[in-house]
Amino acid sequence: MSRSILIVDDDPAVRISLAEALADETTLVRAAADAESALQLLADRPADIVLADVRMPGMDGVELLRLVRQRIPATEVVLMSAYDDLPTVAGAMRDGATDFLAKPLDLHQLRHVLSRVFADRGAGAPSAAVVSPQESSELVGRDPRMLEIYKLIGQVAASRATVVIRGESGTGKELIARAIHLHSPDRDQPFVAVNCTALPATLLESELFGHVRGAFTGAVTNRRGRFAMAGRGTVLLDEVGDTTPEFQGKLLRVLQEQEYYPVGAERPERTDARVIAATHRNLEQMVAEGTFREDLYYRLRVVEIQIPPLRERPADLPPIAEHLLARAARAMGRSVPKLAPDAVEALRAHSWPGNVRELENCLMRAVVLAPGGVVHHEHLAIGAAAPETRQPGTTLAELEGAHVARILAAAGGNKTAAARLLGVSRPRLDRLIRKYGLN
User: Right CATH number for 159-306 from 3.10.450.540, 3.30.365.10, 3.40.50.300, 1.10.10.10?
Assistant: First the structure.
C-alpha cells in the first residue's frame, strides 16, 4: 500500500465508518481513540494524513496538530469538528492544518479533500507554517461560505500579504480585517481603521501619512499619520474604492516601496504596516471606466475575501441574532432576552438590505422595548410603516427633534442606548438634547 491515513476520534462509530469508507487496496487506514494513542502510532509508523477531531477528552485535536507539525512535519493534518466557529477554524488553519471539515462530514467532500492532499504531496507541495495561537473576533456563522472565509483568515494571517475584502455595506468587512490582524504574529501591534469616505482627499492624505509644520493653513506642528501609528500592525483602508485617482497613486507607492511622503515633507518615511483594503464597489467595473487604477487593483488583490450578504445565508440569522442580542443587552446593562419563535420567523422573512449592521440596530431597539425578557415580532420593527409625509410648515429641525424625543422615550431615558439607536455618539446626542430642549 502506497498511502496511509490515521483517523483520530473518540467516537467509535466515527472511527469505524470512516475506516470502512476510506480503506482500499492502495490506502492503509489506522484509527486511534485519542491524541496520545495517535502519537504512539505515528512514532511507530508515520502516516501521510492525520484526520483528527478537534474536541476530544484529554489532548484536543489542535494540540495534536501542533505536536505532529513539530515532530513529523511531512505528515499532513486535516481537522474536523462540529464546532466550526471562527476561533476554531482560523486557529487550526493558522497553526498548520491542511484543511478543516465541518461535522457531520460530507463523505464526497472528504474524499475530494484527501485526494487533493495526496496529489499535492505527490507534487512536492510545501507544508504550512506554524505560528503561535491567537484570540478570536466576533464573527458568527456556519454557512459553508463563512467556513471557507474562516479558513482563509487563518491562512493569510500568518503572512503579510495585502488583502482586499469585498462585500455589501454592513456585511462585517472590518470584522474580517480585525480577525486577520488578531490571528497574525503582529497582533500586539496597533490595528488602525480609516474610513476613506469620511474625509476629503487632502485630509485623508494627512490622516494616513501625517504632515509637517506649515504644510497647509492650520498645520502648526508636525503630525504623525496612521501608517506611522500602526508600526508593524495593520492599516485598514475602508471603502478604498471611493478614493481619488491622485490618492490611489500615492497608495500604490506605499504598497510597492513601503514608503510615503508626509504632506509637505521633502523626504519619504518607511512603513512596515500591513495594508488591508475593503470596498463594496465593483472594482473591475471601475478599472474599466478608468476611475480606479488598474495597477493598484492588482496590488491590493493579492488575496481577496468576498463576504456573502446576510440574505444569502438565512441559516446564520438565529446565531448571529442571539450573539448581537447578548452584546446589546450587556452594553445597556440589561439581562439578555430570548428570541420568541415569531421573532425568529420575522428575522428569516426579512431581506436585510443593510445586512448585519441593520440587524444589529434592529436588535438594539428590541432590547430596549421588549418587556419580560422575550423579544417578539412587534419589538423588531421589521417592515414598519414609512414616516408620515412632511406637512406644510414642518421644518427639518422639528422633524429631527421629534425623532430624537421618540427614541429617548423608547430607550426609557437611557442616553447611551438612545445614542446607539440613533447611530450617533453620546456627546452629539447631548448636543441634540440641549438644542431641542429635551431635558
Answer: 3.40.50.300
229-277 pLDDT per residue, tens: 999 999 999 999 999 999 999 999 999 999 999 998 889 999 999 999 9
Residue 395 is predicted with a pLDDT of 65
CATH 1.10.10 domain span(s) along the chain: 396-435
pLDDT digits (tens, 9 = 90+) for 390-414: 444 456 666 777 778 877 776 667 7
Residue 348: phi, psi to the nearest 5?
Answer: -70, -30
Classify domain 396-435 at the CATH topology level. Answer: Arc Repressor Mutant, subunit A (1.10.10)
User: Which residues, including other chains, have CB under 8 Å from residue 259's CB and lie 6 or more apart?
Assistant: 253, 268, 269, 270, 271
Q: Which helix (H) or strand (E) holds 227?
A: helix 226-230
Selection from 164, 380, 396, 395 nearest residue 282 by Cα: 164
Among 310, 384, 385, 378, residue whose Cα is nearest residue 342: 378
- With cut-offs at 50, 70 and 90, classify the pLDDT of residue 197: confident
Tell me if residue 99 falls in helix, strand or coil: strand
CATH number of 3-138: 3.40.50.2300
Tell which residue, 414, 318, 315, has the closest CA to residue 375. Answer: 318
DSSP state letter for 387: P
What is the C-alpha separation between 210 and 213, in angstroms, rounded? 10
Would you say 153 and 86 are in contact if contact means Cβ atoms under 8 Å apart? yes
Alpha carbons 176 and 277: distance in angstroms, whole number: 11
Secondary structure class of 271 (helix, strand, coil): coil
Show the CA angle centred on residue 73, arms to residues 69 and 77, nearest 5°.
60
CATH class of segment(s) 310-379: mainly alpha
* Contact present, 268 and 259 (Cβ < 8 Å): yes
* DSSP helix/strand/coil, 396: helix
- Pairing mode, if any, of strands 374-375 and 269-270? unpaired
Would you state the pLDDT for residue 137?
45
Rounded Cα gap, residues 2 and 426, in angstroms: 66
CB 389 within 8 A of CB 423: no
pLDDT tens sequence across 53-62 = 999 999 999 9
